[in-house]
Structure to design on (461 residues):
């Protein structure tokens, strides 16, 4: 009897297990099509929060390049200049990969902190990209958005955990 | 719990190569992203068509939900209006009494105005609006302040056209799809409108601040022309925006800058009108001097 290599075993999961994480991030990006007209950027970036939730919950799920298609999809609907999501999301995942050293212990608070830093980086970076491409200074209006997103992040971690249990149920 | 050790491929050459390739792909994507951002700085309309297609596809969902959101948002207002009905009635009656003489005066002024214009043989060619549209969505997560409207190339909407509502100026068209278009609202940091104060005609520039407010800068030096509550209308200088569309009310003044609130609140807009690009009349030719 031959022992199956890891890749083959991974493929044996039902397709739902592969699709649910990607679909949930894309659904998060699509929430901006809801018919709400906002005077200021106050909504948390749902797509990014789902991506970070999955990344922190299941570090082995994705390689860093997954941020390229997902970030491009987010750019289509977010109103940010095209390329902003691609760059910031990929950079975030690459840095998270670098930080995954075995010496660091992880618990709920560390995950929240990591998520908060990543969110603040991406939102401030997005504002910087807008400043670069259209001019004007838009960093101040982003601060409340960062606060809202950081406060809402644990909820999205829980949501990812919930979806994770559902997707792996046989 | 300690972090997992999934990024350690061990001795398997294949696993190592796979990990390496994944990182190369990610870094390549990073560079492509930076390239796209630089491209959108140099050529803002470059990939607009791609986004316009995405907006076209999702517009039916957005449009269908808009009525529900508006209904939910106005419930509190309706309850408040019912509660205050008596006081409001009285206040409105008083306001009407005060407004009636002004209306008569305004009619007289309008008549005189028309007569003077006839004397001067000034003709005003009113351009018909291009499309009447619904405003159905916005970029709630981004620092850009863009809104989606329900008309695109099929109705003759083109980038650069001004958009107004009953209350005042809304913005201008940025990206055009086939059935939808994205407009840059007045509050976007990339939008600047030449305006003037109604009270004294002082010209100013109105720039969005990205947080729902507008910043005004006077074009005269050494004075403090702004007062709280001043009305600002578009001046029509330089074309694009037609003159005398209400833009904003000044909320606070500070030296020769002021912060104003836009009159057309995008969150409450039902309908907006896309106008043709305004071309100011040519100035009269200088008199030719014959030697």
């Amino acid at each position: 009897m031959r022992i199956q290599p890891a890749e083959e075993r991974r493929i044996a999961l039902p397709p739902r297990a592969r699709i649910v994480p990607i679909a949930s991030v894309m659904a998060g990006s699509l929430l901006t099509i809801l018919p709400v007209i906002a005077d200021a950027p106050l909504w948390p970036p749902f797509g990014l929060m789902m991506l970070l939730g999955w990344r922190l919950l299941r570090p082995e799920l994705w390689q860093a390049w997954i941020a390229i298609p997902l970030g491009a999809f987010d750019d289509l609907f977010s109103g940010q200049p095209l390329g902003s999501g691609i760059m910031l999301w990929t950079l975030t995942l690459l840095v998270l990969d670098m930080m995954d050293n075995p010496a660091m212990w992880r618990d709920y608070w560390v995950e929240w902190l990591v998520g908060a830093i990543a969110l603040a980086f991406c939102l401030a970076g997005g504002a910087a990209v807008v400043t670069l491409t259209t001019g004007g200074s838009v960093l101040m209006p982003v601060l409340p958005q960062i606060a809202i997103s950081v406060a809402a992040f644990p909820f999205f971690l829980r949501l990812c955990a919930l979806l994770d249990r559902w997707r792996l149920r046989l | 719990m300690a972090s997992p050790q999934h990024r350690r491929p061990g001795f398997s050459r294949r696993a190592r190569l796979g990990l390496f390739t994944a990182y190369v792909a990610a870094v390549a994507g990073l560079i492509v992203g930076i390239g796209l951002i630089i491209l959108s700085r140099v050529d803002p309309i470059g990939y607009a068509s791609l986004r316009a297609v995405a907006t076209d596809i999702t517009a039916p969902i957005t449009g269908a939900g808009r009525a529900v959101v508006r209904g939910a948002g106005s419930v509190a207002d309706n309850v408040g209006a019912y509660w205050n009905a008596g006081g409001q009635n009285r206040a409105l009656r008083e306001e009407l009494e005060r407004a009636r003489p002004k209306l008569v005066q305004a009619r007289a002024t309008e008549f005189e105005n028309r007569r003077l214009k006839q004397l001067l043989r000034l003709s005003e060619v009113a351009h018909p609006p291009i499309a009447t549209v619904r405003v159905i969505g916005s970029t709630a997560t981004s620092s850009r302040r863009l809104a989606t409207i329900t008309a695109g190339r099929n109705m003759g909407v083109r980038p650069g056209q001004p958009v107004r509502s009953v209350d005042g100026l809304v913005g201008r068209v940025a990206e055009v799809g086939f059935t939808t278009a994205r407009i840059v609202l007045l509050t976007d940091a990339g939008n600047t409108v030449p305006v003037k104060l109604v009270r004294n005609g002082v010209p100013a520039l109105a720039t969005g601040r990205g947080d729902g407010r507008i910043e005004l800068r006077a074009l005269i030096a050494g004075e403090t022309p702004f007062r709280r509550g001043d009305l600002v209308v578009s001046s029509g200088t330089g074309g694009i925006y037609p003159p005398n569309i209400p833009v904003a009310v000044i909320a606070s003044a500070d030296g020769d800058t002021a912060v104003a609130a836009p009159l057309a609140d995008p969150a409450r807009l039902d309908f907006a009108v896309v106008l043709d690009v305004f071309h100011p009349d040519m100035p009269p030719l200088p008199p030719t001097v014959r030697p």
About this structure: The longest strand of chain B covers residues 246-254.
